[in-house]
Specification:
Chain lengths: 183, 157, 387
């Protein structure tokens, strides 16, 4: 058998075939909303974010200080032992400069791109990265290994969400480091 | 192994709200394209019969689920049938009460007896009976758009 | 182990951006073609293994149940499996369980995907694979995670975007010879680098297209396989492995979970030196750098050295170790689970000498397919041999 000799199914359509009704189709938007329980670890994490602090959780067996905090250690497979505050500074492990929104629509020209990054937070164990975004920085100055500091919402505007940190900005002005940036 | 901390007071429970932000456009596919186009344009109902095992399908299909044969021929059926079962529905999707209860029927279609078809029965709940003969009620041609609601429902014959 | 298992037949649909067929109809087209290819009918099939990606793409809740008729599941032992993007290569593994155990003698393995139902783009559904509380509020796109990994990979090994872009050039060109391909193209490295920048370092031509499509294979136990075909392709090793659910804490430069999955499959297949023994491979390539990343995880290249093999032409179809001779996801398309199974089918055809214009020279006897998925953390690996 060769694919070349088979009758291959699938009838390709253009988007206009749907819009112009050349083939029948049905549009549907499911209307489902969720309330996800935070549980103990993430509940406390969010509560502390509201206070302007980052809290982690430590496992006394592997000695990892884990972010986001969790009530059980997935490596040692046992309950974690204590709460540990981290600093609100960290190091950029990797980053991207993103010109599209979450729905794949384009960020309008003239508006700054998003700069998502994996940030290793000071005070948590090495490699305990969290996903967040960078700000107050020229995209071309972002470097892997760059030190950054959290920029918080005003206390009265915080709501117990990861977005209580608006973004992370460089701890120091741009400097010539030997790490790869986009430039 | 117990977790080392637990939430003792239910007022300390917290949650985070969100949605799954998706929209869909479903194509009808090859089988249902024929079925609904025939209703929309000609007011005719199409069924199909497997050329190998003779299983009948309503709506018409392009393959037989039992023996996997390709089905290329459809045939017309009157759309009439017999109520196999029914239920009376008093609530809306959001749990609120319906002004008038809706009767939903399973209808075994004449000429395609291997399948049952689900639709509303245009009848008051107390009159609905298993075994009753029903026929489809179509929208006027100019109002039909190729959807399942081109069939308004089934009413007693 | 109960018995040795072979792939004896395969079929697929074209991969297209938007198919008129429903997911069921696509599944049937591929499954019927697979049965026809080995002269079997549904009656000859003992059980069905069905693989498909998250329900949110098709917009059909309980997609396994929905796709059962098109997959041949009517009144048969039927089971759906799902490991995200890794599903397509997990599919033959899942089918293998059924037959290798000796419980069944034949198994039809089907993967079907209808990504185009998700409007205007599947990205809305992809957003929800991130953690709902600690990540989704940041409005991530799926491309973030790839861009972040891509950047880390470049930085760790000092690799350039130019070298990585060559993956797209190679695979889209290979796909020109694939009759089911969605996005076959003759392009240059500069075309990739100059295509729309979506999330640096990821350009548009670094990404495989979202496609509709289905693929299917037929598995049989040893005695039945030998009776039905003189060219069985044996499943000699299977492996799969997951990394931590906290993706941002992973080593983003090296897919250790893929290595663990590969080692499991190699051990089962008796492979001691993968670089010598694996003659042809289809690592998962939804994004350009992933092909290279995965070659390293599969121990087919030293860490950071896969780009050099690419630049040297080793991974071309006529090179010493052809990689993604089908055209991969970048060229043939990416209907998630069906794309992974397409890779398995390619190795099957190559080992039978039935890959048409795509046939690699040298009569390969041992090949591998791999996929990757869930929240970017599972590796699924299968090793096939033709003797």
């Amino acid at each position: 058998m060769e694919l070349e000799k088979m009758k291959l199914g699938a009838t390709p359509l253009k988007e206009s075939d749907l819009k112009e009704g050349k083939v029948l189709s049905l549009a549907m938007t499911p209307d489902i909303a969720y309330a996800w329980d935070n549980g103990v670890a993430i509940g406390r994490y969010l509560e502390e974010l509201k206070n302007g602090r980052i809290i982690a959780r430590k496992c006394n067996k592997c000695n990892r200080i884990m972010l986001p905090p969790r009530m059980f250690c997935e490596l040692c497979w046992r309950a974690t032992d204590k709460w540990v505050y981290c600093k609100d500074t960290g190091t950029v492990n990797t980053f991207s400069i993103c010109y599209i929104n979450w729905d794949a629509s384009r960020i309008p020209k003239g508006q700054p791109p998003h700069i998502p990054a994996v940030i290793h937070v000071d005070g948590a164990s090495t490699f305990m990265g969290i996903l967040h975004v960078l700000g107050e920085v020229d995209p071309d100055d972002v470097k892997i290994g760059m030190k950054v500091k959290a920029v918080w919402k005003k206390p009265e505007e915080r709501e117990g969400s990861i977005t209580d940190i608006m973004y992370w900005k460089p701890l120091r002005p741009a400097q010539g480091r030997k790490t790869a940036g986009r430039r | 192994m117990a977790l080392s901390e637990r939430i003792e007071r239910n007022v300390d429970l917290s949650y985070f709200e969100g949605k799954i932000p998706v929209n869909y456009v479903y194509t009808y596919g090859l089988g249902l394209e024929n079925f609904f186009r025939s209703i929309k344009e000609k007011g005719e109902f199409l069924a199909s019969k497997c050329p190998e095992c003779e299983t009948t399908y309503f709506p018409c299909k392009v393959f037989c689920e039992r023996c996997f044969a390709e089905i290329t021929n459809n045939y017309k059926v009157p759309g009439t049938g017999i109520v196999e079962s029914f239920t009376v529905c008093h609530l809306n999707m959001d749990g609120s009460k319906k002004e008038t209860p809706a009767v939903v029927g399973l209808i075994r279609i004449d000429g395609a007896e291997d399948c049952v078809f689900v639709h509303f029965l245009d009848i008051s709940p107390e009159k609905a009976k298993i075994g009753m003969k029903v026929k489809p009620l179509l929208k006027r041609k100019q109002d039909r758009d190729g959807s399942i609601f081109d069939i308004v429902g089934f009413k007693p014959m | 182990m109960g018995q040795r298992v072979a792939i004896i037949g395969a079929g697929m649909t074209k991969f297209v951006r938007r198919a008129q067929e429903t997911g069921k109809e696509l599944a049937w087209q591929a499954a019927k073609a697979a049965l026809d290819s080995c002269g079997l009918t549904l009656k000859d099939i003992d059980c069905i293994s069905m693989g498909c990606a998250p329900d949110a793409f098709d917009g059909v809740h309980m997609k396994g149940e929905y796709l059962s008729d098109g997959s041949g599941g009517w009144r048969k032992p039927y089971m759906r499996h799902f490991v995200g993007g890794g599903t397509g290569v997990f599919a033959p593994i899942h089918g293998w369980f059924h037959v290798a155990s000796g419980v069944f003698d034949t198994c039809l393995v089907v993967c079907s995907e209808k990504m185009s139902s998700c409007h205007p783009h599947p990205q809305g559904a992809f957003k929800t694979i991130f953690d709902h509380t600690t990540e989704q509020p940041l409005n991530p796109t799926l491309i973030w995670i790839f861009a972040l990994e891509y950047n880390r990979y470049m930085q760790t090994y000092g690799i350039s975007k130019r070298d990585i872009a060559l993956v797209s050039v190679k695979n889209k060109k290979n796909a020109i010879d694939h009759p089911a391909a969605h996005l076959p193209m003759e392009i240059t490295v500069d075309d990739v680098l100059n295509s729309e920048l979506l999330a640096w370092p990821v350009n548009r031509l670094d990404i495989s297209p979202a496609s509709d499509g289905a693929a299917a294979i037929v598995l049989a136990g040893e005695r039945t396989a030998r009776r039905l075909t003189d060219k069985p392709v044996w499943i000699e090793g299977v492996g799969w492995n997951l990394d931590t659910a906290y993706w941002a804490t992973r080593d983003l430069a090296y897919p250790r979970y893929v290595e663990k999955a590969a080692r499991m499959a190699y051990e089962m297949a008796g492979i001691k030196e993968p670089k010598k023994e694996i003659e042809i491979a289809e690592p998962y390539d939804p994004f350009t750098y992933k092909e290279l990343h995965h070659m390293e995880g599969l121990l087919l290249a030293e860490k950071g050295e896969a780009p050099q093999l690419l630049v040297d032409g080793v991974t071309q179809r006529d090179g010493d170790r052809p990689i993604c001779p089908s055209g991969g996801l970048l060229g043939v398309g990416n209907p998630i689970s069906a794309a992974g199974l397409m890779k398995v089918i390619e190795i099957f055809l190559q080992l039978r000498g039935e890959a048409g214009k795509r046939q690699v020279p040298g009569n390969p006897t041992c090949g591998l397919a791999q996929a990757w998925g869930d929240l970017m953390q599972i590796g699924t690996v299968i090793v096939l041999k033709n003797r």
